[in-house]
Amino acid sequence: MSPQKQAEEAMVSTFEQAEPNDREEEENGKEHSGFSFRSFLWHGGSVYDAWFSCASNQVAQVLLTLPYSFSQLGMLSGIILQVFYGILGSWTAYLISILYVEYRSRKEKENVSFKNHVIQWFEVLDGLLGPYWKAAGLAFNCTFLLFGSVIQLIACASNIYYINDNLDKRTWTYIFGACCATTVFIPSFHNYRIWSFLGLGMTTYTAWYLTIAAFVHGQGEGVKHSGPTELVLYFTGATNILYTFGGHAVTVEIMHAMWKPQKFKYIYLLATLYVFTLTIPSAVAVYWAFGDQLLTHSNAFALLPRSGWRDAGVILMLIHQFITFGFACTPLYFVWEKVIGMHDTKSICLRALARLPVVIPIWFLAIIFPFFGPINSAVGALLVSFTVYIIPSLAHMLTFRSASARQNAAEKLPFFMPSWTAVYVVNAFIVVWVLVVGFGFGGWASMTNFIKQVDTFGLFAKCYQCPPRAPAPPRPAPAHH
Fold first, then answer.
1. Distance (Å, rounded) from C-alpha 413 to C-alpha 232?
2. Residue at 271 is within a domain
3. What is the rounded (10 degree) CA torsion for 30, 258, 49, 19?
4. Contacts of 144 by beta carbon, 8 Å cutoff, 6+ apart
5. Would 146 be classed as within a structural domain?
6. Whose CA is closest to 206, among 320, 295, 371?
7. Residue 119 is part of which domain span?
8. Which GO BP terms sit in this record (predicted)?
9. Is 15 inside a domain boundary?
């Protein structure tokens, strides 16, 4: 039997031991009814669950900001960069999956048990490369997921305002912060099965609503498509797209929730191909219809006329942002549980109570920086560039730098890569490109734009990019008798 096959079988065996409670409940459900409804909704670990999780998590509120990015980039650059960063993101997600399998197979040879323990990205880096890499992975990953959660809260407030403007966006942020805090009761990515399925359906509806509504609306008189006009705007838009396809900061946790994690390898690519069918048509259609107006309207809902279809899209996106908030926050919950020694606690209520302090800084940051759109680019340039592009590429190169490591790798080269040299060339290109274009130019542009928003609207802005309210009509003078 080949070493790769042995590693795969060992991983499956250990994983089944790591989730005994789930298995027992599932078997009990089958014994009593032949079909466990609870298992169907609650216990997800198949390849399909992982695909739904990846696709659902990859495109959330960013769907509404991509037309804004197209107005900064121009039509052609917008399409090309979506495809380019989609491919780069799929490759680095593949690298993360390889490193997870390598780490897990090495630990299993040492008889390490992962019962009641969720493996995370920083632990993979620690096991393969040492404590300094663990520190870098922990810092970048946690900060990215923190701000990823912040962005979901900001998006909730931005979207609901287009249905009900009786409250300002800051007040809506308070309300949705309390709603999203309920994600502390969802134990792990196993339990997102039904949510991932529904979430992807919701973004699919919204994407095609944007596409059809934009074409039905048509181009208004005098619509201009002048982008790209400034380097700052160009690289700001580019880093928002880099952020769009950098949603695999939770790859390791999704893999660990699978019954057979070694089957994850190409799931992210397949998820990205589906996401292209949502992001490209909607961004193209909305930019075609509204052109340069999008430069001052970072949320695509802002320009589309009010209708039942639009309101449905807003409500569905709100629900999906709640789901995505959970996706981004769950790894942070795990880290916090490990810090305070609660990670192996079986009581859902005790774990939920222990997780609540994680939500408070997210709530606070969403109120300080309510800049829907520009904050995506800043997070993309400063955090996503390292978390899901540079660090995985460097980690893969260093893990397999020796001939013995390459020869004994748990996973062999993919069929489309002829040699290790080709893998190293691709990885080196990603590191240099993202470091120079994503972090360098993108960081400069996105921070310049972000500071401009702070100067224009101020911190703790009460209602970011809200249209001015019409003055109340004067009261009629009282009739004289």
1. 39
2. yes
3. 40
4. 249, 379, 383, 384, 387, 388
5. yes
6. 320
7. 44-457
8. amino acid transport; auxin-activated signaling pathway
9. no
Cα separation of 23 and 36, whole Å?
Answer: 12
Q: Is residue 203 part of a domain?
A: yes
Written as tens digits, the pLDDT of the chain (481 aa) is: 444 444 444 444 444 444 444 444 344 434 434 456 666 666 677 889 889 988 988 887 788 889 999 999 999 999 999 999 999 999 999 999 999 999 999 888 888 777 778 888 999 999 999 999 999 999 999 998 898 888 888 888 888 888 887 787 788 888 888 888 888 888 877 778 888 889 899 999 999 999 999 999 999 888 898 878 889 889 988 988 988 888 777 888 888 888 888 888 889 999 999 999 999 999 999 999 999 999 888 888 889 998 999 999 989 988 888 888 888 898 899 999 989 988 888 888 899 899 999 998 998 888 887 766 677 778 888 888 999 999 999 999 999 999 999 998 888 888 888 899 999 999 999 999 999 999 999 889 888 887 887 776 666 666 665 666 655 555 555 555 4
Cβ proximity of 98 and 83 under 8 Å: no
Tokens of 87: 């491919």
Largest CA distance in the chain: 104
Number of structural domains the chain divides into: 1
Residue with tokens 């309207």: 297
| CATH number of the domain encompassing residue 425 | 1.20.1740.10
Q: Report the distance separating Cα 33 and Cα 474, nearest Å.
A: 68
- Give the pair of three-digit tokens for residue 453: 């928003």
Residue 189 carries which DSSP code? G
First-residue to last-residue Cα distance in the chain: 104
Q: Give every CB contact of residue 347 below 8 A, 6+ residues apart in sequence.
A: none
Residue with tokens 């829907």: 372
Q: Residue 79 burial by CB count (10 A; 0-12/13-18/19+): exposed, middle or buried?
A: middle
